[in-house]
Amino acid sequence: MPTSPYGSVKFDTVDAYRQQFSEPVQQKLAQLRNAITKAAPKAKKTISYNMPAFKANKVLVYYAAYKNHIGFYPTPKAIIFFKDQLLPYKTSKGAIQFPLRQPLPLTLIKTIVQYRVKEDDAFVTK
């Protein structure tokens, strides 16, 4: 079972996941969830790999809170596509780290999610 920064817990809902964190982290997670929902209003909220995820035909994005950052997982292709806008953040093949001490780049997050929605739609039409 994956381990959260606050211990080993199996989450059943996105809200249950968020409630395991401190109030400031909960606020950031709520902001992130709201930004994703605005960018992908038809996406279903779910838990996958014990993390919040938004799914249309396939999973669009995952996210998770850690001690010093929020990990945002929009797929490697999205990270490559937005590499110039992501320069201020630590990234890896499939992850972006948003430091907890900084405001979330909500406009960028929405744009990335919209990109993922278009990718997901294209997957269905193939």
Q: Your description of this structure?
A:
InterPro entries: YdhG-like. Pfam families: DUF1801. This is Iron chaperone. It comes from Ferruginibacter yonginensis. This protein has 126 residues and is an alpha+beta fold. The protein has a single domain (14-116), classed as Alpha-Beta Complex (Aspartate Aminotransferase, domain 1). It contains four helices and six strands, in the order H-H-E-E-E-E-H-E-E-H. It has a six-stranded antiparallel beta sheet with strand order 1-2-3-4-6-5. Helix 2 crosses helix 4 (106-125). The protein is globular, with a radius of gyration of 14 Å. The model has no long low-confidence stretch (mean pLDDT 91).
Features:
126 residues, alpha+beta, Aspartate Aminotransferase, domain 1, six-stranded antiparallel sheet, globular
Short description:
The chain is of the alpha+beta class.
Lay out the secondary structure.
Blueprint: H1 14-19, H2 23-39, E1 44-48, E2 51-55, E3 59-65, E4 69-73, H3 76-81, E5 90-91, E6 96-99, H4 106-125
Antiparallel strand pairs: 1-2, 2-3, 3-4, 4-6, 5-6
Helix pairs in contact: 2-4
